[in-house]
Amino acid sequence: MATAAPRTATSLPPTEESPALEVGALETVADPSRPDADPIVLNVRDLKTYFYTYDGVVKALDGVTFKLKKGETLGLVGETGCGKSVTSFSITRLIPDPPGRIMSGSVLFRGADVLWDLDREASFKPIGDTGRVKIKRSFRRIRAATERMAAIRGGGISMIFQEPSQAMNPIFSISDQVSEALLLHRGREVVQRLLDADAAKVAAQVAPRGGTAGPPEAPAAEGSETSLDAALDRLVWAARSADRAAALAAAADIGRIAGLTSIGTESYYTARDAGATLSDSGEEVRRRFARLKLSAFQRSYLRRELKRMELVEKLNGVYLEEMRTRAPRGRERRAVSRKIRALRYRTFYFGLWGIRGHVKKPVTTEAFWETVQLLEGVAIANPARVARGYPHELSGGMIQRVMIAMALSADPDVLIADEPTTALDVTIQAQILEMMRELKHRVGTAILLITHDLAVIAEVADRVCVMYAGVIVETAPVQELFRRPLHPYSQGLLASIPRVDEPTKRLASIPGAVPNLITPPTGCRFHPRCPYAMPICKEKRPPTTVEGEGHTVACYLYKGPVAVN
After folding, report:
1. What is the pLDDT of residues 116-141, one digit of tens each?
2. What is the Cα–Cα distance from 43 to 446, expressed in whole angstroms?
3. The pTM is what?
């Protein structure tokens, strides 16, 4: 399949006698791959990112365009050095500046232009004929852009980095780092749950009692009421009897009755790890409920935090409105910022030594057990022990799972996974891919999966973009790409994969290497390595044409209508 010459939309092979159409002669039609019923959560248009080095300007991205729909997994595949990771960092505006700089294009996240006001952040002046450029930056505008991105990063667009061990701080525990992301994006929900918990009712039901606990009552029937005290007895008995299923069911009842699911998780692990006797276990679990009894000072601090988080959400809303309307709203922004500073100054005593630890203890404890719940969601064994540990104590697969839990802690609309299975063994790869598929269906997150492994793409992706030397050369549904690859580069990639049905077939390889992006080839960037290159390929960049339902390709071998972004 990959060794045959590409075919046009009319199934006729190109010949030297049939000249390619000029770009202007191609008919322009709408891309049929975009049904209006599917909302586009991420729309990247003509994205260009350059790196200014002493050797010259590296054109890492030179016009990348793609769309990502809600609940979809889009694969971005290509050789090492083709610009996949630069694409992810450009979308989230994490390109190190200097030397990198996003030059132009737009990244629309739910209508908000992430790159709004980009052209006013820096000016460029060539230095003679040296090929170098002098850049004059407006740090005030760059700082404003960084503040605007805080409204999108994490909660809107989250990212799993290629090297999770380097993305995590080795001096902080796992719970510290995951709970930081949780409180930053969902802190208001955490604080509100603590304030709404009926501590008096809970304390009355779980008052410590003497004696040795006997066998518990039978579990309550589905939909029937059960007391918190009875659920605790069932939990302790099941934990000491090593009946994990019954213990989890009892812990779920505890969380439901108390109105705080984390207290059920905490009760489960406390009962499992408590003393050897039933009475010791029961008393230890009951003592843990004391954290729900908030002092007046703690309640005052939580109400202050709730007000501050509401103001921060309002400020983020102003930033998003700026990016949607592309108009500055400095007066509203400054007004909300003044309220946040005034609230902090009026309640400065909450940050004093000796007071800070007391008032923050309910929040930190609640965040720890919610972190344990997140780690349970990514199938980490013994999550309470892992949460207390540090990154260097975990294996590569475990750290990858922690990164996924951290990225999904805010329920983002878009998850960018930059080679999440790199350097992991096959068993762990399969587990992580299956977990990402389950999380996508459960949370509804759209995933941009970046990888060089076509086997991973075939396993989890819905659509795939093939990238070469900073440009997208082909986009298609994943089954269509494997059945009918059009671009010669896509055919070369597929021809290099071993096939089970042809075990004796000699694997093909693409001659040459990825070009130097300081001086990229003119016209089509693949033409020096393409066996079907024509004279026009060296002169003009081929347009992206529609060659089927959702199938587009940038190659002069095909003569379909030009795709509209």
Report:
1. 888 888 888 877 777 677 788 888 88
2. 12
3. 0.81
